[in-house]
Design a protein that fits this description.
Radius of gyration: 29 Å
Mean pLDDT: 84
Strand content: 5-15%
Low-confidence stretches: 119-128
Strand order of the largest sheet: 7-6-5-8-9
Helix content: 55-70%
Structural class: alpha/beta
Shape: globular
């Protein structure tokens, strides 16, 4: 057996699916009977698969049948067994009273049914002729929430999948597909038993689901994909599709629901106006994120803020029609969430799932990407969007990166270093009679973080510049003896810019006659 049994991913995924199915009952999308029928069918399918594979392996062992991919099918068999065990727990909770009743005495007096007074429902509200400001709150919040959540999750997916910009296209494609599917499912809105109650719980779930999604994104990545490997496009597509299903389908369904409710109150078709109100919320969320949140808060903090805003929106929308117990619960939840945001480093905790067995010494989310500094022993490593940028205490690599080029140029005086200052390359360069080292980094945080692990930036020969290398060489009037590039391989569009004919033609223009350009690539 060479694979790994997926105990925790399967358990977490099934529990999450079961929670979503319970939420659907609460929202009135379907009945409890329909929900249990669905899980009974799933239980039957999982049982038949596990039993069939178990019987097959019994015959294979007894009659010494040899077949290929035995380990793979054994892995599938055990995974079905794990799923069977988890779903069986759901089934047990439905009939726990029946099982307990087996051990109880049957001589019981019949219990007279209690006549309950009709409860006040959220639907028992006064119907307005025209939608007022309070009625538009869910629409504004839908645009506000979806815009910020989309940007935060895009950045998180980029970080998890090594900064590859193809991931952006995959996520946006899945987002549009699932949101459209949710809007299409909104055809069932007229059949909802209590539309206003659905809106109330919908606001709560739109705040909760982004936090659950980003947590599963980080926790399950190294359980499903081989750590350190670059995931293929189809696995990324499938992984993101599954994670985005709850939030995107709910948000698409919500737009159709809000359009239906507001149009009913106005006595006409308000779909166009609903779209405009939702777009206004999206604009507000985009501006707030771009100019404030991206610089002040981290991903989990931002999504926690979204949760609090949605809870407040639910309060304002139905504060006159819900029981006092619900609002106490919402306010308590909001306060606890605020405390979590203030005092618990949730984002750094999630990063530990991406860098197992490493100590994270610093973590920053910047407008240019996520940066993590890890430590193992005395060695520090710098990661940008999951891509290894630099290592300290690697003298062999530093010597290869520097001396092969420097030895080809007699008495080099002017050197241009593009990235790599954290690794120790500057010390190797200064073994030659160099007058000036111009060091380029596009992200100022790398320089700030680098000063915590090295003092090379403060040497008199070193001139640190916070500039993009491509734009710098276009306007540079200076000429260099040696240009050293210490960049990751061309695995993203951001990095591919430095591995083009046009870029090297520009570098050649800033070289002295006989100058040398050096860069490295992996053997692949």
């Amino acid at each position: 057996m060479t694979g790994t049994y997926h105990i925790w991913p399967l358990t977490a995924g099934l529990l999450f699916a079961y929670m979503i199915s319970l939420a659907g009952i609460r929202m009135g999308l379907y009945t409890k009977v329909a929900q249990r029928r669905f899980w009974n069918v799933v239980l039957l399918i999982v049982f038949l698969m596990a039993a069939s594979l178990g019987l097959f392996f019994a015959f294979q062992i007894n009659y010494k049948i040899d077949f290929k991919a035995e380990d793979t099918w054994m892995l599938i068999h055990v995974d079905f067994g794990i799923s069977l065990a988890v779903i069986s727990v759901f089934h047990f909770t439905w009939h726990v009273n029946y099982y307990l009743g087996i051990f109880k005495s049957r001589n019981k007096k019949p219990v007279q049914p209690l006549v309950k007074e009709p409860e006040k429902q959220l639907s028992d509200v006064k119907v307005m002729t025209h939608p007022g400001y309070t009625d538009k709150i869910p629409v504004y919040l839908l645009g506000f929430t979806t815009m910020i959540t989309q940007v935060v999750l895009l950045r998180a997916f980029l970080n998890v999948f090594d900064g590859n910009e193809l991931v952006i296209g995959i996520i946006l494609g899945n987002w549009m597909l699932l949101t459209g599917l949710g809007a299409w499912l909104g055809r069932k809105v007229p059949k909802l038993r209590n539309k206003l109650r659905f809106v109330f719980y919908n606001l709560v779930w739109l705040g909760v689901l982004p936090l659950i999604t980003i947590a599963f994104l980080y926790i399950l990545k190294n359980m499903i994909f081989v750590p350190g490997s670059l995931a293929g496009l189809f696995p990324v597509y499938l992984y993101s599709l599954i994670l985005l299903i709850p939030f995107c389908i709910l948000s698409g369904y919500s737009f159709t629901l809000y359009s239906f409710i507001l149009s009913g109150k106005a006595g006409g078709n308000l779909t166009g106006r609903t779209y405009a109100w939702e777009a206004a919320g999206s604009l507000a969320g985009g501006l707030l994120f771009s100019f404030i949140l991206a610089f002040v808060l981290k991903s989990v903090q931002i999504l926690s803020l979204i949760l609090i805003v949605n809870l407040l929106g639910a309060y304002l929308w139905h504060k006159k029609n819900a029981s006092e117990r619900i609002w106490k619960f919402l306010l308590t939840t909001g306060i606890l969430t605020g405390l979590v945001v203030l005092f618990l480093p949730s984002d750094r905790y999630l990063q530990h799932f991406l860098y197992p067995n490493l100590t994270i010494t610093d973590f920053r989310e910047t407008p240019m990407g996520n940066f993590v500094i890890t430590r193992m022993g005395d060695q520090y490593s710098l990661f940008e969007n999951g891509v290894l940028v630099a290592n300290t205490l690697d003298p062999v690599a530093n010597e290869e990166d520097v001396h092969y080029a420097m030895l080809q140029r007699p008495r080099p005086e002017e050197v241009l270093l593009i990235s790599g200052g954290v690794t120790g390359m500057i010390r190797e360069i200064l073994k030659y009679p160099v007058k000036t080292i111009d060091y380029l980094e596009i992200n100022p945080w790398i320089i700030k973080a680098g000063r915590t692990v090295t003092k090379d930036f403060d040497l008199p020969e070193v001139h640190v510049m916070k500039k993009d290398a491509r734009s710098y060489v276009q306007t540079c009037k200076k000429r260099y003896d040696v240009i050293l590039m210490h960049l990751p391989p061309p695995s993203t569009a951001q990095l591919n810019r430095f591995y083009t004919i046009e870029f090297y033609q520009k570098l050649k223009k800033v070289l002295k006659p006989g100058g040398v350009i050096c860069f490295g690539l992996p053997s692949s």
